[in-house]
Amino acid sequence: MFNRLSTQTVNWILIIGLTLFVLEILFFRGGLILTAIVFGVAIYVGHKNHAQSWGKFTFWGGIIGLLVTILNMLAVRFIIVVFILLFVLDYWKNKNATYIIPEHRLNRPAQDEVLVNIHPLFKALLHGKQSTPEDAYEWRDINIFSGIGDKVIDLSQTIIPDDTAVVSIRHGIGNITIYIPYDTEFMIHHSAIFGRAYIVNKPHEQLLNQQLSYQTENYATAKTRVKIVTSMISGNVEVKRI
């Protein structure tokens, strides 16, 4: 359904939803922001103390409370109703649609294309800490979206191929630490709404809705290199030599 929606239609839905959100905050339910902040603090405190029982209770209580708060917003309910209506209309159109099967002039023999299933190093988790294996492991590019938790990637325990190894992480809340061997060139593009970045010997004490980019001196000509692309809502990113 979504691939048949025009960009203009989606943009109008989002603009109307954003307008309703602003009107609701300014004139009707200004306390929603304070409520969301309280639940956000509860999630953060609960995550930091997740090893204890009260920390788990605080964390999941904050998650549930924040979801309920978001679902009670007029703008969110508007977007949900609109997409339900679009789904129903799309289903009705497809139900009565007539499909034309193209005729192929050349009858080529069907060949089974061999696809190899590659198991990712990391999984997309809503919550939890993840790290690469402590022992030697086979390298696979990392491309994940995650919620809350820390990520640790140690490239000294793997053999990077003579190519560009890619580490792409879109993260919510938590820290990302990447260990790179001294003889490996790398590039990093990082963006964060709030947090800190420590790129080898280039510390940035605070990032506030900022982006940064660095690359080592011989990155452009190196055969073996690592490209790092990270983004997060809140947290620290650190690249260390090992």
UniProtKB/TrEMBL annotation:
Annotated Gene Ontology cellular component terms: membrane
Protein name: Cell wall-active antibiotics response protein
UniProt KW keywords: Membrane, Transmembrane, Transmembrane helix
Alphabetized InterPro entries for the sequence: Cell_wall_LiaF (IPR016975), LiaF-like_C (IPR024425), LiaF_C (IPR047793)
Superkingdom in the source lineage: Bacteria
Residue ranges of domain Cell wall-active antibiotics response LiaF-like C-terminal in the record: 128-239
One Pfam family in the UniProt entry: LiaF-like_C
Organism this protein belongs to: Candidatus Pseudogracilibacillus intestinigallinarum
Spans through the membrane: 12-45, 57-89
